[in-house]
Amino acid sequence: MLPALALLAASCFCAAGAPSGDTYTAAERRHWAFQPRAHPTSPSFVPQTDRQWVRTPVDAFILARLRKEGLKPASPASPRTLIRRVYFDLTGLPPPPEEVERFVQDRSQDAWPHLVERLLDSPEYAERWAQHWLDVVRFAESDGFEYDTHRSEAWRYRDYVIRSIREDKPYDQFVREQLAGDEIDPKNDEMLVAAGFHRLGPLRKNAGNQDAAYNRNEILVEMTNVIGSGLLGITIGCARCHDHKLDPIRQKDYYRIQAFFATTHQRDIPLSSPEQQAEWKKKTAAIEAELKSLRAKLKPFPAPDNEGLEKQIAEKEAELPPPLPVLQTVEDRPGEYIAVHVLARGDSAQPGEKVGMRPIGVLLPDDAPEWGDQIPSPRLALAKWITDRANPLTARVMVNRIWQNHFGTGIVSTPNDFGRMGSRPSHPELLDWLADQFVECGFRMKPLHRLILLSSTYQQDYIAQAPRDAMEKDPENKLLWRFPRRRLSAEELRDAMLATSGRLNPQRGGPSVIVPIEPALVKLIYNPAQWAVNPDPNQFNRRSIYVFHKRNLRLPLLEVFDSPDMQLSCPRREQSTHALQALELLNGEFSNAMARALAERVAREAGPRTDLQVDRAFRLALGRGPNAAEKQAALRYLADGGPLSEFALAIFLLNDFLYAN
After folding, report:
1. Separation CA 482–CA 470 (nearest Å)
2. Low-confidence residues of the chain, pLDDT below 70?
3. Burial letters 615-643, b for 16+ CB under 10 A, else e
4. Which of 245, 282, 347, 404, CA to CA, is 20 to 30 A from 417?
5. How far apart are CA 496 and CA 621, in angstroms?
6. For the chain, how many helices (H) and strands (E)?
7. Per-residue pLDDT at 23
8. pLDDT, tens digit, for every residue of 432-441?
């Protein structure tokens, strides 16, 4: 039982229905994730020999578990390793070589805390950590499925996330704004953009006759599933067709959550004048009429005459005016309320028992009543329950995501699944302690970052030749006896090439940039005219978070390095290794263009001496100078007439460039 949550349900709503009839066994309620936080204290006893290692309470928890298993932590990482690690960790960019040298030479005790604080205050930090959230909420700028229609205004939500992280907005407020910004303040554009959260999922659009009930249900499914995976860390989507096979989530639970969205409908608010809208409609209608005429002349395939017609159609489609700016949000329309029913096999054509709103039953007392069919501000009611301090899932889930993005793996290694099929916490007391700290610090992320980054655990070295006992007892490094090595994500890799070459455009915010890609790939798009490349080439060098993210067409470099398509919530980036990655780096247009730019920069900054060029290239790309063998090989290659651009390309293929630490 969770008295605080039960009290919330009782106090917020006076219109409660009859008891639901749901009961849960003691075993179902006993699962660790559904239990209240244990409010542990950090281990108080630390052996004299280890006291210097324990810098924050995080270290006390980690060390206690290591000692229990007969293991010891790795030695500290070098300053050169640390600054590269934390730069990529917090900003997603490599440190400038001059800054690396300053940090290496700074022997003061405050050097590391000052560096951490400065990076947390940087705008690049917000851009990097916004990407983590965008992964979770499956942000993209097209519908997906067959038509994959563009959402030209989705960038407003992306910028909202970046702003929120930059100002360290409390996470509970951040969640409430996204779930119910339009209900909180319907006249505030920021709140309306935040509520665009409900518009992020993929959307299937069918031509011809439309099944309104089916289409509406698919939208509600998208709204409901992300609440479970993204915010609560449980797979409630598995209960759409039947009671969850493994977790205590009833099919009724699924549709009761869905009921909070029964009056929610999409809303596009024009940001243009009536005159501009009228002109746009007139121009669009004229071109659409011409397109209709051209398409009517197309003959059944195959037909040689079609090629010329298809070219004319493509040219005419390119003349269509771009969509007028709108603010994409949602709104409640109580007058369009459609009752929510439990659907047999999730089929909208097989409605069963009608249900009202209510949170997940296992977190409420047995036979807790439903909250009713229609209540004021239903999504705000759901948001208050999710962000309640006593909710056992919300703080744990977010803390685990933050930990994962620092160490590569969460304390719970299945961040979207805290259920029985998910992994158990490697350090349950630490997870609850961090969740308590998160709540007590007002749900702010930056204090949590500091606790982690200032710890000895984070500042450990990566040991390539691991001790045998550590590999035998903990081969996956779940106990963190060394710092885990991390390859750069797809976006970090692209941004690192831009930064190293000196081509990175630091412009922030605004509409996403459509960059050039191979024509053969554009032809695969349902409507190639949608891929309207930005006319300003300087825009192509923006950070990857500002590059247009189309579900059915990812940039080749990003795709081969495991950038997700965002059809579903991405809880953790995969790290595959395969030949296509090497081929893309060696032959890709982007990597070769960046290699040429790096060569130009090196020649400009280092002058004509090849030894200075080699040193400058290494320091720009890797944050260090070349070792003796590297320098000898590089000088021999350049002396034999090897192009500086190909040497620069080889630098991009080094593991020390591809990995953050």
Report:
1. 9
2. 1-21, 207-209, 301-305
3. bbbbbbbbbbebeeebeeebbebbeeeee
4. 347
5. 8
6. 28, 4
7. 86
8. 999 999 999 9
The SS3 of residue 326 is strand
Q: What is the pLDDT of residues 180-203, one digit of tens each?
A: 999 999 999 999 999 999 999 999
**Model pLDDT for residues 290-309, shown as the tens digit of each residue:** 888 888 877 776 666 677 77
DSSP 8-state assignment for residue 627: -
Number of C-beta neighbours around residue 98 at 10 A:
9
Closest CA to 394 of 357, 428, 443: 443
pLDDT given at position 44 = 82
Same domain (yes/no): 427, 534: no
Place of tokens 């460039």: 657
Is the domain of 505 the same as that of 557?
Answer: yes
Question: Mapping DSSP to helix (H, G, I), strand (E, B) and coil, where does residue 238 land?
Answer: helix
- Of residues 47, 119, 59, 66, the one with CA closest to residue 89: 119
Contact (CB, 8 A) for 231 and 220: no
Structural domain span for residue 518: 490-658
Our count of domains for the chain comes to 4
Distance CA 364, CA 528 (A): 51
Radius of gyration in angstroms for the set of CA atoms belonging to the chain, rounded to a whole number: 27
Residues 515 and 470 in one domain: no
Residue 345 domain-assigned (yes or no): no
614 domain-assigned = yes
Tokens of 71: 């293991």
Q: Are residues 643 and 531 in the same domain?
A: yes
What backbone torsions phi and psi does residue 58 show, to the nearest 5 degrees?
A: -55, -45
Residue type, 465: Q
Are residue 500 and residue 469 in the same domain, yes or no? no
What residues contact 220, with CB distance under 8 A and at least 6 apart? Answer: 258, 261, 262, 340
Query: What gap in Å lies between CA 18 and CA 52, rounded to an integer?
Result: 59
Domain boundary among 487, 521, 556: 487
**Residue 413 shares a structural domain with residue 289:** no
Q: How far apart are CA 533 and CA 519, in angstroms?
A: 12
Phi, psi of 70 (to 5 degrees): 75, 25
Q: What is the DSSP letter of 328?
A: E
Residues 429, 432, 433, CA angle at the centre, nearest 5°? 80
Q: Measuring CA to CA, which residue among 455, 365, 400, 349 is closest to residue 113? A: 455
Q: Which residues contact 84 (CB under 8 A, 6 or more apart)?
A: 94, 95, 100, 623, 660, 661
CB atoms within 10 A of CB 295: 12
Based on the fold, state whether residues 560 and 505 are members of the same structural domain: yes
* Separation between Cα atoms, residue 398 and residue 594, nearest integer Å: 36
Q: Is residue 79 part of a domain?
A: yes
The residue behind tokens 């397109």 is 291
The per-residue pLDDT for 4 is: 52
With CA atoms as reference, report the closest residue to 448 among 174, 161, 171: 171
Are 476 and 403 found together in one domain?
yes
Q: What is the pLDDT of residue 453?
A: 98
Q: Integer distance in angstroms from the first to the last C-alpha of the chain? A: 45
Please name which of 544, 543, 591 lies closest in space to residue 563, comparing C-alpha atoms. Answer: 544
pLDDT on residue 2: 45
Q: Cα separation of 570 and 525, whole Å?
A: 23
The whole-number pLDDT of residue 205 equals: 79
